[in-house]
Amino acid sequence: xxxxRAQYRTGDDFxxxxxxxxxxxxxxxxxxxxxxLGQIVLVDVRVPNxxxxxxxxxxxxxxxxxxxxxxVPAGVGLEFLASERRKRDFLLALAGAGAHAQGQRRHRRxxxxxxxxxxxxxxxxRRSGVLADIAPGGAFIxxxxxxxxxxxxxxxxxxxxxxxxxxxxxxxxxxxxxxxGDTALGVTFYCRDAGGMRRLRELVxxxxxxxxxxx
Length: 215
Hints:
The chain has about 220 residues and is α+β, with helices and mostly antiparallel strands.
C-alpha cells in the first residue's frame, strides 16, 4: 500500500488542509503524482507535538489539477475510512488545542454524555448539544445542527455534579465537523487567570468522581 507523507508546520496548517465535507473527514494532499481514484493509501500524518507518526488509512476520492493563474496547487482529496474515526478525532483535537495539547495530552480527557446548552458569545439564543468529553483545556461537543466557524467565541453552560446552578465556560471553536449524522465541534477554553484554570480542573475532577460513582 502506498504511503503519503503529510507534514504540517502548525495545527492551523493541518486544519487548513482538513476536509470536513467527507463523511468521515479527510485531507487535501498537494501532489502531482498519479494516484488512481478509489485507491487506498496510508497517510503518514505529522503535526507538532505528536511524538510518533500516525498512519491513517484513506481513499483517493478526487483529483485537482494545478491552476497557475490563481496559484491553486495540484492535489487529491483523501477521504478517511470509517475505521479511522478515533485517529481523526485525536488529530483534530491535537491540532485544534494548540498550546493546550501535546502528543500525549497534558490533561486527561473525561468521556461523558452530558446534555448541555451553548451559545455564540455575541448572540443571546441558546442551543443544545451533548458534551462527549472534557478536560481543563477544552471540550468535544456533538451537535444536531451546523456548527459555527472555527475561531468563533462560544459559551458553554453545564451543571456540575452536586450543583443546583449551571456554570458558564468561555472558549473558542478550535475545529468543526459537519457531515450527515456526524456533526461536532471542539472548543478550547480560555482562562483570564490562574484561578480560572484551577476552577476548570476542579470541575473535571468533580465530574470524574461522579462518573466513577455511577459506573
